[in-house]
Amino acid sequence: MNKTQRIAAATVVKVFGGASLTAALQDVWRTHADLSAQQRGAIQDLSYGVLRFYGQLNILLELLLNKRLWDENLRCLLLVGLYQLIYSKTAPHAIVDSAVSAAQDLNNNKMVRGLINAVLRNFLRQRTSLLERATKTEVGRYSHPQWWIDKLRAQYPHYYQAVLDASNQRPPMTLRINRRKIPIREYQDLLNQNGMSAQLLANDALELVRPAAVEKLPGFTEGLVSVQDMGAQLAAQILDARDGMRVLDACAAPGGKTAHLLELAEVELTALDSDVARVTKITQNLSRLSLAAHRVAQGDASQPSKWWNGEYFDRILADVPCSASGVARRHPDIKWLRRESDLFQFAEKQRGILDSLWRTLSRGGKLLYTTCSIFPEENKLQVDSFLRHHSDARLLPLSGIETIEGQLLPNSHHDGFFYALLHKV
């Protein structure tokens, strides 16, 4: 266990150094190719757990120490130990002993081992009182940055606590069935035959009772099913593309929504993304599902002159880059890497994309503006500004889903998304 603790701590150090958790873990897998599947799972769980509850864990560590630690690796190793003592079922003495052993590569080895032993055992002795003291601050109670908490409280005074709690839960694993290959009920029966239970949600998404490795999903390789959040599956349904239409998915990678659009209708679809490496993922996803787009290309959605041939689109999906604040439970590093000032930078980029794509939409066409954010600067305020500056734009009502002015807040069944369906009159 000490190896997994040590590597998890080093992973968290990289995140606080500015790397995304996804990139940090990918680097771990490349560097430690000898890790077993069990070790990989443990490292991933510890890394995600520490970042998910970092607000609470960091305050606890401050209460246990007289001054800030001189070594970031040591600090993160203690955070890993505290996370395990609170949230894992492993025997406390085993966690402490293993954490002490994991410090073997740190400077001042003997002193460091004594410090780790003292801090973690002190937590065990004062566990109840320390946990209670940590909840007296909002950062400790909700494990989100204070600016994040303040913004949500101001925007959603009746819902912000539920949103913060939902963002700290493990996300559900939800499936989208490729209806071109198999009916939903038939695939649900196939899951049951393989010992997997799933709940059918309102928009025909299937939520697994217990998450499973992708490769264990029946028919995944053959393209029967994809993993996609219930909230994300709404995009293709809201856009309502019909057979024969020209459709643009403007920020398409890795291709989940692109594929869904092609599963629902026979359309002439162009899938675009600015990242050439991620464009490859679109092609790979479509190939697995036996789907074909009219065109898959690299291009900046804010610069149509470089990729648009002048033929107008009937439908446009603009799933624009954003803070990803609505999917923080899937990417807990976002909470600690984002700054409030980032929202204004995202908003500026989103405005440029929206204005540019509007010029490529046919009269009578529809554009679906969407983000996986829960902040109004990227969502409602963005759309309000767009409507003020475009007299030919109308906001259409969203049918079949309950939102707060287009905002879908994260809960036990889906992540947080914003949807605005715009009609070009």
From TrEMBL:
Keywords from the UniProt entry: Cytoplasm, Methyltransferase, RNA-binding, rRNA processing, S-adenosyl-L-methionine, Transferase
Assigned EC number: 2.1.1.176
Cellular component annotations (GO), alphabetically ordered: cytoplasm
Catalytic activity: cytidine(967) in 16S rRNA + S-adenosyl-L-methionine = 5-methylcytidine(967) in 16S rRNA + S-adenosyl-L-homocysteine + H(+)
Biological process, per Gene Ontology: regulation of DNA-templated transcription
Active site: C372
InterPro entries: MeTrfase_RsmB-F_NOP2_cat, MeTrfase_RsmB-F_NOP2_dom, NusB-like_sf, NusB_RsmB_TIM44, RCMT, rRNA_ssu_MeTfrase_B, RsmB-like_ferredoxin, RsmB/NOL1/NOP2-like_CS
Domain SAM-dependent MTase RsmB/NOP-type: 163-425
Annotated compartments: Cytoplasm
Database matches in PROSITE patterns: NOL1_NOP2_SUN (PS01153), SAM_MT_RSMB_NOP (PS51686)
UniProt xrefs under Pfam families: Methyltr_RsmB-F, NusB, RsmF-B_ferredox
MF (Gene Ontology): RNA binding; rRNA methyltransferase activity
Ligand binding (S-adenosyl-L-methionine): C251, A252, A253, P254, G255, G256, K257, D273, D300, D319
Superkingdom of the organism of origin: Bacteria
The protein's enzyme class: transferase
Function comment: Specifically methylates the cytosine at position 967 (m5C967) of 16S rRNA.
Family: Belongs to the class I-like SAM-binding methyltransferase superfamily. RsmB/NOP family.
Name of the protein this chain belongs to: 16S rRNA (cytosine(967)-C(5))-methyltransferase
